[in-house]
Amino acid sequence: MEEARAEGNEIISAYKAALEKVFEDHKREAVRQSETRVRAESTNARQQKNQAMAKAQLDLKRKQGKVQQELKDKLFAEAEELVREFMKTADYDAFLVKCIRSALDFAAGEEMTLYINPSDADKKERLERETGTALTVSAEDFTGGMRAVLRGRNILIDHSFKTALANEYDKFVFSGGDDIG
C-alpha cells in the first residue's frame, strides 16, 4: 500500500511538475506575444501620429501659402496705386525725360522707335520738345514709363512700370519671419 501510495505521489509530483513546466512555457509565450503586440501597436501609433503631423504640416503650409499669396496680391495692388499716384506728379514727367534721353544715348543715333503709354498722350508734344525726338503713343497700356525699340539690333529698352512691377512680383518672396525683431 505504501509502495502504491509512494508510486501515486511520484506520478502526481511528476504530473504536477509537467503541468508547471507547461504553465511556465505558456506564461513565457503569452508574455512574449503581449510584448510583440505592444511593440507593434506602439509602432502603429507612432506611424499614425507621424502621418497626422505630416498632414497637419501640409495643411498649415497650404494655408500659409494662400495667406501669403493674398498678402502679396494686396501689397502689389497698393504698389500699383502708388505708381498711378506717382504718374500724376512732376517727378514722373522728369522720369520720362530721363528715360528718353538715356535711350537716345544708348542708341547713339541709330534708328529707334520711342513709345509712351496711352495715358501719357497729353504729354507727348511737351516731351518731344524737351527731348528733341519724335515719340509714339503705344497701342498697348504698359502702366506708365516708356519703351524703345532698336530694330537694327533687336533690342527693347523697357522702362515701363508694368514690366518693373511684374518682375518684382515674380521675385517677391516672404521671408520666414525669423528676422523680424
From TrEMBL:
Pfam families: vATP-synt_E. It comes from the Bacteria. The keyword Translocase does not apply. Residues 30-40 have a biased composition (Basic and acidic residues). The keyword Amino-acid biosynthesis does not apply. Residues 30-49 are annotated as: Disordered. InterPro entries: ATPase_E_C, ATPase_V1_Esu. Keywords: Ion transport, Transport. Belongs to the V-ATPase E subunit family. This is V-type ATP synthase subunit E.
